[in-house]
Amino acid sequence: WTIVERYERQSSLKIHQANPYYAEFSVYMEPLMDQPGEVFQYNELDTSKPVHVE
Predict the structure, then answer these.
(1) Which long-range CB contacts under 8 A does 36-44 form with residues at least 24 apart?
(2) Is 44:5 a contact under the CB 8 Å cutoff?
(3) pLDDT tens digit sequence for 7-35
(4) How far apart are CA 52 and CA 43, in angstroms?
(5) What pTM was estimated for this model as a whole?
(6) Which residues fall within 8 angstroms of residue 7, CB to CB, at 6 or more apart?
(7) Full DSSP string of the chain
(8) Packing angle of the helix pair 10-18, 20-29 (nearest 10 deg)
(9) How much is the CA Rg of the chain, to the nearest whole Å?
């Protein structure tokens, strides 16, 4: 299974990762999984600049 979280701003992701429950999630989930969990980050779009479509 996969968990997908999307954030509009990088600062929102940092706030999420600083939450104490963020670390607790892995502690809770690891014993339930048959393989170690993997965390990937993918930036879908660069929203720092306007996008122009022609």
Answers:
(1) 44/6
(2) no
(3) 888 899 899 999 999 889 888 988 999 98
(4) 19
(5) 0.56
(6) 13, 16
(7) -------SSHHHHHHHHHSHHHHHHHHHHGGG-SS-----------TTS-----
(8) 70
(9) 15
